[in-house]
Each structure stands twice: as structure tokens, then as C-alpha cells.
């Protein structure tokens, strides 16, 4: 079996070389029809667009994307061509929740927001949205959820219309997939009309896909004071992002909310498991992220401890200083672990949390 693998997928080399007869590693954006022509399977990230142009006439029968998002796969073409694809649901949801938690704590610490008096609206209550709701509850916030597909399926009263969130919330955070069309279309879900429907001058957070928010509408809303601030991890037209927007947001990061080493290891493991299932291969492999350099965190408060574990300001400062290095900042991302990898001691009592 011949497999082409995105060379930015970590912790995969040893395992995939055990599983496949031939493995070629290449940058995700450099997958060409010639490169994939004789491959049986691809293991990709968001930077490889899997469509007719890339795949027609190839031997490819299986694609695993080591991500939850799959808007870079033309699923209709794959179905027509008999190509099976998988994504990695939930792989990085705890990582995005960590990004949200640290960003919310920074809003409290640096912008004087009283989180426990705020209402947060979560648009998209899937793997990430559900974990963000848990984080927000733990911070004492009131949570409103919007999830049209789940509302249709579950007929539950848990969900509110987007209009209600727009009217009632102090923070709105997007966790939907990018759907370019259809009943649940999310492309430019936040457009001028959406921003005009806001009532409480909220803070906007987007870690879903850049195209879920109309950049010009977001800029207008920031400039006219319709919203009070923004935390933006995903951008239209990455990596050529709108730098005027970047300079106006509280935190602007290079699509790294899901980049904890834990999340990446999960994605790698899930992609390999799916590949082995598809080709009926039985092999043992262990995919584990490296230990943190300093696994014991000593801090005065839990907030301080969590920000020692992950502070998104560093990612934001690096991007604001060098927006042209968007892809490089992602490609050379430092080791980031989730809180389970640490032992947290709060002094002076040295209590464990
Ligand atoms: N920035 C990052 O690093 C990063 C990391 C992980 C995920 N993401 C993005 O965030 C998205 C969500 O991730 P997830 O793991 O929670 O995915 P998920 O599939 O588990 O959840 C998505 C939820 O959105 C809901 N939804 C779909 N269309 C909707 C609509 N029109 N209105 C309201 N809700 C809608 C779905 O019903 C589902 O519950 C991914 O698709 C991906 O694009 C980004
Ligand atoms: O969809 C996802 O899982 C995330 O957006 C993920 O972090 C994307 O990572 P990439 O493939 O762009 O490295």
C-alpha cells in the first residue's frame, strides 16, 4: 500500500511506516495529481484540497484528514468517485476549549469583564461547543446554545434561535462547521444583518472557520462599536489575512486553537485507526505527545496556573508582529499540552487543583 502523508502531521512516521509499504511525506499544499496518482490513501490536513482536480484518474481509495473540519474535501466528488474519507471528530475539542478558557480569563484580567455576570452564546454545540459550554459554566457564566441541526434532530428545548443569542448575549462564540450551501449553510452566518441584530455590544469569538464571518461586516462592527471586541483564530483567505482586522482585535491567532499536542496526537491516532480499519490491517502503535518541559505549575491562583499552561497572548503577539509568517507560525508551533499533563500547585498552601 502506498500512502501520501502531510509532512506537518506529528507523531506519525514510525507507525505509518509499519502500516504501509511505501510512504511519501509532502507539504499539504504541494499535493499534486502527479504525486497522488499511484497512491492508495492520503493522510491530510486542511491545506490539501481534495477535489476532482487532484484526484481524477488516481488510484486513491481512502482519505483521512487529521482534523475535525472537512470543508477542504469535496465530499460529493469523493462519493461519485468511490473514495471513502474520514475526519477525526472530537480530536482537538479540548484544545479549543483550552483556547476559549484562556481567552475568557484574559478578557476578565485585562479588559475588566466580569465573566460571572455575562451571558455567552455558543453557536454550534458539537464536540467543541459542548466543552466550551462546560468551561463557561465553570466560570459562572450563563450559557445559551444555538444548534439548528441538533434542534431539528433532538426536538429539545435546550437550543435557542440565533436571534435570541444576538439579543441577549455579551459574548458570542462560533463553533460550527463551514457549510457553503444547504439548509444549514454557515458561510457568512455572521453578516451585516447579523451584526445589526446585536443588542448588547458583545465580544465576538471565532475559532470555527474564517468564512463563517463576513470580514468586512466584522470590521464595520468593530469600527462602529456594534461589538466591543473580538478574538479571532480563523480568517477568510488564510494565510493572506486581513491585517486591518488583525490589528483591531483583542487576540488574533494563526488558526492554532486546536493545536495542543494532545489534540494533534488524537488526530494522528484516529487517522491511522481509520486507515487500518479500511484496509483491514492489524498493527500495534502508540501515539503519545511529549511530556511538558515543566510538568509542575506553581501559581497563586487557578487563573494564573491556567495562563501559565496556555496563554494565547503569545500566539497573538507573534502573529501581529509578523502576519506574513502565518503558515510558519503554524508549522513551527511550540509544544502545548492540556492541563491534564500538569500537576498544579497553588501556593501558599500548595493545594493541588
Ligand atoms: N481553530 C481550530 O483550530 C479548530 C479546531 C477544531 C475545530 N475547528 C472548527 O470548528 C468546527 C466545530 O468543531 P467541532 O469539533 O465542534 O465539530 P462538530 O461537528 O462536533 O460540531 C459542530 C456543531 O455545529 C452544529 N451546526 C452545524 N450547522 C449549524 C448551523 N447552521 N447553525 C448552528 N449549528 C450548526 C452541528 O449540529 C454540530 O453540533 C469544525 O468544523 C472546524 O471547522 C477549528
Ligand atoms: O478542523 C480542525 O480540526 C482544525 O481547524 C485544525 O486545527 C486544523 O489544522 P490544520 O489541518 O490546518 O493544521
TrEMBL record:
NAD(+) binds at residues 147, 233, 258. Residues 22-281 form the D-isomer specific 2-hydroxyacid dehydrogenase catalytic domain. The keyword Oxidoreductase applies. The active site is at 209, 238, 255 (proton donor). It holds the Pfam family 2-Hacid_dh. Residues 110-257 form the D-isomer specific 2-hydroxyacid dehydrogenase NAD-binding domain. Catalyzes the oxidation of erythronate-4-phosphate to 3-hydroxy-2-oxo-4-phosphonooxybutanoate. Substrate binds at residues 46, 67, 259. Keywords: Cytoplasm, NAD, Oxidoreductase, Pyridoxine biosynthesis. The keyword Methyltransferase does not apply. Gene3D superfamilies: 3.30.1370.170, NAD(P)-binding Rossmann-like Domain. Its EC number is 1.1.1.290. Pathway: Cofactor biosynthesis; pyridoxine 5'-phosphate biosynthesis; pyridoxine 5'-phosphate from D-erythrose 4-phosphate: step 2/5. It catalyses: 4-phospho-D-erythronate + NAD(+) = (R)-3-hydroxy-2-oxo-4-phosphooxybutanoate + NADH + H(+). GO terms for molecular function: 4-phosphoerythronate dehydrogenase activity; glyoxylate reductase (NADPH) activity; hydroxypyruvate reductase [NAD(P)H] activity; NAD binding; protein dimerization activity. GO terms for biological process: pyridoxine biosynthetic process. It is an enzyme of class 1 (oxidoreductase). Homodimer. Belongs to the D-isomer specific 2-hydroxyacid dehydrogenase family. PdxB subfamily. One of its GO terms (cellular component) is cytosol. It comes from Bacteroides fluxus YIT 12057. This is Erythronate-4-phosphate dehydrogenase. It is found in: Cytoplasm. InterPro entries: D-isomer_2-hydroxyacid_DH, D-isomer_2_OHA_DH_cat_dom, D-isomer_DH_NAD-bd, Erythronate-4-P_DHase, NAD(P)-bd_dom_sf, PdxB_dimer_sf. CDD domains: ErythrP_dh (cd12158).
Amino acid at each position: 500500500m502506498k500512502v501520501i502523508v502531510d509532512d506537518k502531521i506529528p507523531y506519525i512516521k514510525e507507525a505509518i511506516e509499519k502500516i504501509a509499504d511505501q510512504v511519501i511525506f509532502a507539504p499539504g499544499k504541494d499535493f499534486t495529481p502527479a504525486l497522488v496518482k499511484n497512491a492508495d490513501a492520503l493522510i491530510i490536513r486542511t491545506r490539501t484540497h481534495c477535489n476532482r482536480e487532484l484526484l481524477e484518474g488516481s488510484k486513491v481509495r481512502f482519505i483521512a484528514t487529521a482534523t475535525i473540519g472537512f470543508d477542504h474535501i469535496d465530499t460529493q466528488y469523493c462519493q461519485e468517485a468511490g473514495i471513502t474519507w474520514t475526519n477525526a471528530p472530537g480530536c482537538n475539542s479540548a484544545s479549543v476549549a483550552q483556547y476559549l478558557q484562556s481567552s475568557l480569563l484574559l478578557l476578565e484580567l485585562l479588559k475588566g469583564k466580569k465573566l460571572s455576570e455575562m451571558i455567552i452564546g455558543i453557536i454550534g454545540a458539537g464536540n467543541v461547543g459542548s466543552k466550551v459550554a462546560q468551561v463557561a459554566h465553570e466560570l459562572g457564566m450563563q450559557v445559551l446554545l444555538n444548534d439548528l441541526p441538533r434542534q431539528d434532530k433532538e426536538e429539545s428545548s435546550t437550543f435557542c434561535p440565533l436571534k435570541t443569542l444576538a439579543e441577549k448575549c455579551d459574548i458570542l462564540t462560533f463553533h460550527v462547521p463551514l457549510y457553503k450551501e444547504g439548509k444549514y449553510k454557515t458561510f457568512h452566518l455572521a453578516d451585516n444583518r447579523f451584526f445589526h441584530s446585536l443588542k448588547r455590544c458583545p465580544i465576538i469569538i471565532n475559532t470555527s472557520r474564517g468564512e463563517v464571518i463576513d470580514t468586512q461586516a466584522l470590521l464595520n462592527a468593530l469600527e462602529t462599536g456594534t461589538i466591543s471586541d473580538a478574538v479571532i483564530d480563523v480568517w477568510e483567505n488564510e494565510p493572506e489575512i486581513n491585517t486591518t482586522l488583525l490589528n483591531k482585535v483583542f487576540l488574533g491567532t494563526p488558526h492554532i486553537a486546536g493545536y495542543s499536542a494532545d489534540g494533534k496526537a488524537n488526530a494522528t491516532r484516529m487517522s491511522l485507526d481509520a486507515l487500518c480499519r479500511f484496509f483491514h490491517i492489524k498493527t500495534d502503535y502508540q501515539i503519545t505527545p511529549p511530556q511538558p518541559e515543566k510538568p509542575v505549575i506553581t501559581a497563586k491562583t487557578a487563573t494564573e496556573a491556567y495562563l501559565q499552561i496556555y496563554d494565547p497572548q503569545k500566539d497573538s503577539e507573534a502573529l501581529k508582529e509578523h502576519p506574513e509568517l502565518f503558515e510558519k507560525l503554524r508549522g513551527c508551533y511550540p509544544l502545548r499540552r492540556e492541563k491534564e499533563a500538569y500537576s498544579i500547585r497553588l501556593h501558599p498552601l500548595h493545594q493541588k487543583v
